Amino acid sequence: MQVSSLNEVKIYSLSAGRSLPEWLSDRKKRALQKKDVDVRRRIELIQDFEMPTVSTKIKVSRDGQYIMAVGTYKPRVRCYDTYQLSQKFERCLDSEVVTFEILSDDYSKIVFLECGRFVEFHSQHGHYYKTRIPKFGRDFSYHYPSCDLYFVGASSEVYRLNLEQGRFLNSLQTDASESNVCDINPVHFLFAMGTAEGKVECWDPRTRNRVGLLDCALSSVTADTEIDSLPSISALKFDGALNMAVGTSTGQVLLYDLRSSNPLIVKDHHYGLPIKSIQFQRQLDLIISADSRIIKMWNKDTGKIFTSMEPEYDINDVCLYPNSGMLMTANEAPKMNIYYIPVLGPAPKWCSFLDNLTEELEENPESTVYDDYKFVTRKDLENLGLAHLIGSSLLRAYMHGFFMDIRLYHKAKMMANPFAYEEYRREKIRQKIEETRAQRVQLKKLPKVNKELALKLIEEEEQQQVTRKRKQKNLPSLLKDDRFKVMFENPDFQVDEQSEEFRLLNPLVSKISEKRKRKLKILEELEAQEQEEEEEPEGKASDAESSESSDDEKGWVEEVRKQRKLLRQEEKVKRQERFKEDQQTLLKPQFFEIKEGEEFRSFKDSAKKQKLMKKTLGDRLKLEEKLGTLNVSDTTVGSKQATFKLKKSEQQKKQQEAEKQHRQERKALRRSASHLKSKRGRGRRFH
């Protein structure tokens, strides 16, 4: 079980962790629980709560005892008994299920709308009846007072199938080209359907007439939203007699009051994905909307986010268990997720132990989801030598960095710096020793870092205490202030007196301190002779002070010039030393190995090749024409024809020379043989 928290709302993922295979013995299961922490923490709330490949829809019966889910592959429906916490039955179907509806309080009457235009009815014992609708269906709703099924899909008509008479009735003719979703109000049984044009049509089943039309596509577009195409309706849900929530294919949720054509609130998921499911939570006035990536819970009055969940796999459907805080999802994965949120409500009566479990976890908080992971930046990965893992499943991108397993982080850190633990241990021992020393009687000592600065601050404080009046408040000391404490403890903050900046600013700092001392002396004299001397008017300085300030400025300028001259001389000395070192160093020759079958000519060839590569294609063609390796001619059609002569390598040239020599030798042998034959013929004739 994993625990996560967002906006101080705790979410318990009951399906997290690995599932154990059925064929494992009890002994092996117990051994795995002892060794593996993930297996020990997992909670298997309902046994085998999963599908072979993908789950598409999930619903709860009205009595709350049965949970039904459909998925693939092969297409099937599974029914789970919550009282037994296990699977009750499984039935395979001929084609994939688009959606289904539980007509009875339990699992005895179920209707499935399948991909191949089939409508399949199941009873308690299994398959009961199968029929077909004229067009491909996308959604349907059941009208309880008249026992009619309303089917919408790839057609402008809404097909009606009466289950009492067992026949199709006259269909409803709409203005839409196609319809995606539909729903019937549970209070006054108003039938609403969402079209592909982004409109919602409302029909009265009693008179079979349209009573309202909402243009949701126009209302969903605001100043902040960015859309690429016309939004269509992808989700529809009634709440009570007057409220209706509409989800669009561009990721907006609109909440309507049926008495108004303008939406009360427009909520954007900011993912641009179609809204797949909308649920109402009446206890806290929340709307639970979900697309394929995230589930958001927000207040229906203000639109403020309550909390959100982002599962690992894409979401196909969301089901809220009635009158509880349990939430179930059908995903693009075999396992169906179960979440428990105590703030939404108590646990269902068939798993009431969850309340006690969550209370114990809150009293003894354990590690949350992110305690098992370490957040690292790209720079940290480069320092650890793990930059090649970016894009793999071991790193999960988040904000400006990545989350990685804490065990992998510790292993990589130990390999990158094997003595890190020893350094950490020494530092801790040193801190403990310093803490024990701090408890002893302390003498006034200067800090180890920035002693001169600390001495200067102490002297200034003492002088201020002498001149300060009793009624004035004590000013805070920099040495005792925690914000500046590190400046006198960490060696990284040591003032470098040999740096250029310090040497140029030091005359100014020293003059300022001298001025301060003079002013303090003047103030002491003024206090002693208040009755004898008269105060000068504000805003005017005495002649003595003006003359002193001018002398100080001249002296400071001269000192700055001296420091600059010294810096230039030091730079000259450093340059001369570097020049001497360069002269003393001897350059050693470097040897390069040439590949077999190649001959070294000169470095000019490579330079020529680089120059040729920088030239344009036209210039290179002209050079090839001059060398004779290229021939450009006009054709009869009017286009250009170019023929190239490939350059031969040294190996090919040697091979051709050897073949040529071999041919010449064979020719010579043939000539000598024919000459001998002719001589023999002549000799026989002579005899």
Automatic annotation (TrEMBL):
Record field: compositional bias (Acidic residues): 527-537
Coiled coil listed as a keyword: yes
This protein's encoding gene: Nol10
InterPro entries: Beta-prop_NOL10_N (IPR056551), NOL10/Enp2 (IPR040382), NOL10_2nd (IPR056550), NUC153 (IPR012580), WD40/YVTN_repeat-like_dom_sf (IPR015943), WD40_repeat_dom_sf (IPR036322)
SUPFAM superfamilies hit by this protein: WD40 repeat-like (SSF50978)
GO term, biological process aspect, one: maturation of SSU-rRNA from tricistronic rRNA transcript (SSU-rRNA, 5.8S rRNA, LSU-rRNA)
Ranges for region Disordered: 527-557, 643-687
Domain NUC153 as annotated: residue spans: 481-507
Cellular component GO terms held in the UniProt record: 90S preribosome; small-subunit processome
Primary residence: nucleus
Composition-biased stretches (Basic residues): 663-687
Chain ranges of the Nucleolar protein 10-like N-terminal domain: 1-364
Protein name, per record: Nucleolar protein 10
Domain Nucleolar protein 10-like second per the UniProt entry, residue ranges: 369-417
